[in-house]
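Why predict the complex rather than its parts? Because the way molecules touch one another can change local conformation, and only a joint prediction can capture that. The input here totals 870 residues.
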Amino acid sequence: MKGQPLSRRGEGRISEGWSAKMAMAVAVAVARVWRPSRGLGRTGLPLLRLLGARGLARFHPHRWQQQQHFSSLDDKPQFPGASAEFIDKLEFIQPNVISGIPIYRVMDRQGQIINPSEDPHLPQEKVLKFYKSMTLLNTMDRILYESQRQGRISFYMTNYGEEGTHVGSAAALDDTDLVFGQYREAGVLMYRDYPLELFMAQCYGNVSDLGKGRQMPVHYGCRERHFVTISSPLATQIPQAVGAAYAAKRANANRVVICYFGEGAASEGDAHAGFNFAATLECPIIFFCRNNGYAISTPTSEQYRGDGIAARGPGYGILSIRVDGNDVFAVYNATKEARRRAVAENQPFLIEAMTYRIGHHSTSDDSSAYRSVDEVNYWDKQDHPISRLRHHLQSRGWWDDEQEKAWRKQSRKKMSGPSSFISEEGYWVPASEVCLRPCTYSKCSVMEAFEQAERKLKPNPSLIFSDVYQEMPAQLRKQQESLARHLQTYGEHYPLDHFEK
Amino acid sequence: MAAVAAFAGWLLRLRAAGADGPWRRLCGAGLSRGFLQSASAYGAAAQRRQVAHFTFQPDPEPVEYGQTQKMNLFQAVTSALDNSLAKDPTAGKDRVFNTPLCEQGIVGFGIGIAVTGATAIAEIQFADYIFPAFDQIVNEAAKYRYRSGDLFNCGSLTIRSPWGCVGHGALYHSQSPEAFFAHCPGIKVVVPRSPFQAKGLLLSCIEDKNPCIFFEPKILYRAAVEQVPVEPYNIPLSQAEVIQEGSDVTLVAWGTQVHVIREVAAMAQEKLGVSCEVIDLRTILPWDVDTVCKSVIKTGRLLVSHEAPLTGGFASEISSTVQEECFLNLEAPISRVCGYDTPFPHIFEPFYIPDKWKCYDALRKMINY
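Output of the joint prediction:
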């Protein structure tokens, strides 16, 4: 095994004379005493080279179970830490940033397949599902973003421009593959048919929220769909995903774990930890990096100096690829192949999906402060995953303007009378005025879910205290009772009307 | 040659003596005084090794758990781990393994395993090195169940780590960081005082459906020896143990310090005629408020002692709660005998630790208040 010293059966070229052996024993004992916990360490190795492995093995056989054959006749490097040849020319390896790892794509910007042998030949149904998932996500994003602007929900993060990375990768997985996300992967859940009602419930924190109203919007989770609940700290999910993959491997589950993160989160220590563990412990995991150009306001030029994230993979011993994240087929192909091999070979894969974050980081951000409108418009108009797929569908004859209209209409479910709701000022407001920008896709099914979500109550405040532990400790129960008593006296100062009794 | 052989044999015996610390090792192997004197004639007294600040008191052999075996604390821990592994029918060296050297990775990885439902027992080599994993423990492990509305949890994660002073550990091999974690709802923090306690508490931590941190007093690894059942058994979490009943003062500690206060109780009885109730807290979070308060209501006086620094140490939480619950029962201010508010020093350890004399003195002042 690489990196391990000395074999039991090593061929020492030194004679096995008695005096040599005794000197060896002394040397070993000295080394042992002064470095008790790490075997011989550096002290011992020169002694071993001098006196040969066989003599040593005789005295301490249990130490030498896993080592390489040691030949001291060659001038090859024997360092346990690397498998490499000597070189006598001083030369630093140049990181190649000017011409980085190439970007795999299947379609051009007009949606035409470039190399027919790379066409995944997916059935029409499936590709239409791609399209509908991405467009439904886009619509939901528009409505919920606006709803935050109007104070209806506290916070939101859109996925504009990255829908291809979500749907392409989700489609290449099995339904039971475990997903660990960052926060900008709602399309994965959308593809797995997570109902709009539950997206909204989490954003509103109402009684239908599976998360019981504890987290900020967009922190979705779903056990049935194998989507681990999102948490705010960046990159913490990376080593966790690796552990989950290890457990899946041990269980012979034939499952892969996929772990999404942005190029900014990839700078965190947890990312380094996750990559190294995954490779070293041979875990069936796909690391999927959405490189969208910005970490809030930090552009990639201020995030790293190397060749993106894909170039880091080989440093860890991970098979890596860079793909066009706005090309849903490229994302699909890469994820599909990575999945197949990760499960078959129990090793990690790193996919860096190049894309662009068209929207602001979140509703707390105004990206016009750090980038030009022209830059954003380029991506919105010229290289958008939804447009490219639509062009592809149209060129295939699988979609046309009629169907486009019908899709928008179909999702506009029949409603009795104009849909409306009460604004903060207490006036009835027509639904069409909810969105200041006209939203185009499946507006009304989203609107329906939205209105229902807004009408529902929030969960009972006693849910502050449950699930901290599996059982409620005595001290916590006391605190729960204390709040209940407090509300009995001071309840009028709290928004109890919006909460379930 | 004979001299070399003798020398070699001597060195190997030193290794076998297995004590920790270079000075202890030399003495433990029966070194003749003559050998050392030339090196240290000028300061033989100063360089004599320090005696441990406590005397481990084994508990009586337990009878209700079947056959027992003499074990020290680390053997008891190993026994618990063996029992736990025996429950898993799958064999293989992928069950107990090294990881790359990265505490945040170790704990994150363990959380991920636990999320799938499998049991993960992660070791952090010294509690002093647990801090890179602080984010994973506090922001992730502790909050997993709560933030997901109980859709996901990492309850089958246990983190175990050597803890506490060891005679020569200095800043980075002596820390007792339980107070940092006591402030984190969602995890459990446990510290055993003995081999028998260690095995039962560790098994309870492993089986507990919440992520647990199990701190093992490293100075007791070899120094604490007692009869420990071979079969698995559980000691409940969040239950303090009154190991000695008394009527005048309540003494509370955990881990190694329990043995210090036990000795203080004996001193108090002998020198002052004071009867002490000695409590081993065992679980730091969630802690057994009722047992401690019940005792203070009886005695009217409380002394809490730990090696960790005074300010923000867990004694402050106990003190604050007890004065809320038992204010009118208190005959004297609650006394905390703790480490100083400094990093843990090396050569000054005998002066730093809250030894029996400091505890005795504080107790005496409380009695005379």
